[in-house]
Design goal:
- The chain is built from 19 helices and two strands.
- With 512 residues, it is mainly α.
- The chain folds into four domains: 1-188, Growth Hormone, Chain: A; 190-245, no CATH class; 253-413 and 464-499, MFS general substrate transporter like domains (Growth Hormone, Chain: A), CATH 1.20.1250; 414-463, no CATH class.
- It has a two-stranded antiparallel ribbon with strand order 1-2.
- Helix 4 (41-53) runs antiparallel to helix 11, helix 7 runs antiparallel to helix 8 and helix 11 (192-211) runs antiparallel to helix 12 (221-243).
- The longest helix is centred in the last third of the chain and has 43 residues, at 383-425.
- It is globular and about 85 Å long.
- The protein starts with a helix and ends with a strand.
Length: 512
């Protein structure tokens, strides 16, 4: 448990920090005199460095040892957090956030590997439930905590709050984390070409996903160039890694069917967790006109339900086939997301409460058995590498979800508005009746016929905009639900792990 507390402190600190910053961006921009585009780099800069370090988890663990690597990551994150709070201009803050991402990107996959290996085989589901409490609940708690700190204090506090937690995590890591005997340190030289290809490929891909919608996707020459760079860089990197005896990132783990299928489900889980976690607050604030605090409170039931399900599923995983739990989780998530397709501009707190609570609960059904099955299918010395790859794919799945859903939302909103406006302009009876009623009401207030007609047209246009936005969100929720249903067959490719008692070094953690 001391090991668990050590790694959970660092991991939760990093995960909450990725979302807590989002609610403070407006205040940061105003305080530092930055534009909306410039302040967006505070989040983007962190993610660019984090996604680069994630897949290197296995190589860096083997190069420096687990204890030293994890402790150094905590130290980098903590020091960068302190520097962020002292930033006096936006680009200084972006630079500090990029350094912070180097530490933060390492904490989550390393924590998952340490927790999984610290527990005996019969309790590994509980270890993943403990990990899931931070990985899944953290993103929901971050905005609520950030909103409180920004509203009552000042934005540097969202960074300074990491410092005492980071110091405690650093000291505990040095005291309690040990290097497993089956992880052999190696002194091989760094593959500089491979590292360069990885940096170019992942950084370009993450930039395209983060800024594509803002720059109108492939109408931007920069987005086109970076998309090409990401494809060339990542394809070249993968081919190179498959030829090397000791690669930076061991992609041979994808030969394992269970690991590959599990990561497909993981990408979709990331899509749902990050994508819908962005879209739902936008719906609440744009259509329901809730403020940041009300939005955070409305999202909290999902986080509480996730925490409960993590604890429940942690005990069920050894007794119930993991594939049944995952299929149930995907089905419940799909149904609850489909139910969101009936939201309107008149929906209230309790309309949101139940679908969100069910979504939160099913994340436990998905994450715990998925983590156990996917990691258990591998050999012990592959776990550090595999958790880094898995964390990267979930992050990219989240970025893909955000990019796809926001683009679809904008374009569907435009389509719906054009269709509804066309009905008004074409003289459809219902639309003309609504226009006449609005005009009559305004004339009754003393306006001339011309003024009343103009004001009525403006009012009708506003109604059309609200209705078009509502339709776009409804379509978006239903499309997301369909995606989860389509992913369900991947569960059939997974195989239930069976604990191997007294497994030797280098043997699989579990056998099929």
């Amino acid at each position: 448990m001391l090991v668990s507390i050590s790694v959970m402190l660092g991991m939760i600190m990093a995960i909450i920090d990725t979302t807590i910053v989002n609610v403070a961006l407006n205040q940061i921009g105003g305080n530092l005199g930055a534009s909306i585009d410039e302040v967006g780099w505070v989040a983007t800069g962190y993610l660019l460095s984090a996604v680069i370090i994630m897949p290197l988890n296995g190589w860096l663990t083997a190069r420096f040892g687990r204890k030293a690597y994890y402790a150094a990551s905590v130290a980098i994150f903590t020091l960068a957090s302190a520097l962020c709070g002292t930033a006096t201009n936006i680009w200084q803050l972006v630079a500090y956030r990029a350094i912070q991402g180097i530490g933060g990107g390492a904490l989550q996959p390393t924590a998952q590997a340490i927790l999984f290996e610290s527990f005996p085989p019969e309790r590994r589901a509980q270890s993943m439930a403990l990990f899931g409490l931070g990985a899944m609940v953290g993103p929901a708690v971050g905005p609520l905590l950030g909103g409180y700190l920004v509203s009552n204090y000042d934005w540097p506090l969202i960074f300074y709050i990491n410092v005492p937690i980071g110091i405690a995590a650093f000291l505990m890591a040095l005291a309690f984390i040990e290097d497993p005997h089956y992880i052999k340190k190696h002194e091989q030289s760094l593959d500089y070409l491979g590292l360069g290809l990885l940096v170019i490929g992942l950084a370009s891909l993450q930039y395209v996903l983060e800024r594509g919608q803002h720059d109108d996707w492939f109408n931007s020459p920069l987005i086109v160039a970076l998309a090409i760079a990401s494809i060339v860089g990542l394809v070249w990197f993968c081919l190179r890694q498959l030829r090397l005896a000791n690669p930076l990132v061991d992609l041979r783990v994808f030969r394992n069917r269970t690991f590959t299928a599990g990561n497909i489900v993981g990408v979709v889980t990331g899509f749902g967790l990050f994508g819908l976690s962005l879209i739902l607050p936008l719906f609440m604030q744009q259509l329901l006109h809730w403020d940041a605090w009300q939005t955070g409170v409305a999202l909290l039931p999902g986080a509480i339900a996730t925490a409960i399900s993590m604890l429940v599923v942690g005990r069920l995983s050894g007794r119930v086939d993991a594939r049944i739990l995952m299929a149930s989780g995907l089905a419940i998530f799909a149904l609850s997301t489909w139910a969101m397709g009936y939201f309107t501009q008149y929906s209230g707190f309790w309309d949101v409460f139940w679908p969100r609570a069910w979504q939160g609960f099913c994340l436990g059904l998905l994450f715990v058995p998925l983590s156990v099955v996917t990691i258990s299918a591998l050999q012990r010395d592959q776990i550090a590498n595999a958790t880094g790859i898995g964390t990267l794919l979930r992050q990219l799945g989240g970025s893909l979800g955000i990019a796809f859903l926001t683009t679809y939302l904008q374009r569907d909103m435009t389509r719906a508005y054009a269709s509804m406006a066309d009905q008004v302009n074409s003289g459809r009876q219902v639309a003309q009746q609504a226009l006449a009623a609005a005009q009559a009401q305004l004339q009754a207030q003393g306006m001339s016929m011309t003024q009343a007609h103009q004001m009525a047209m403006v009012e009708i246009a506003q109604r059309i905009q609200v209705n078009a936005t509502t339709v776009a969100y409804e379509d978006l929720f239903r499309l997301s639900a369909i995606l989860f249903v389509v992913t369900m067959p991947c569960v059939l490719l997974l195989q239930r792990p069976r604990a191997v008692v007294g497994a030797s070094v280098g043997a699989p953690v579990a056998a099929d």
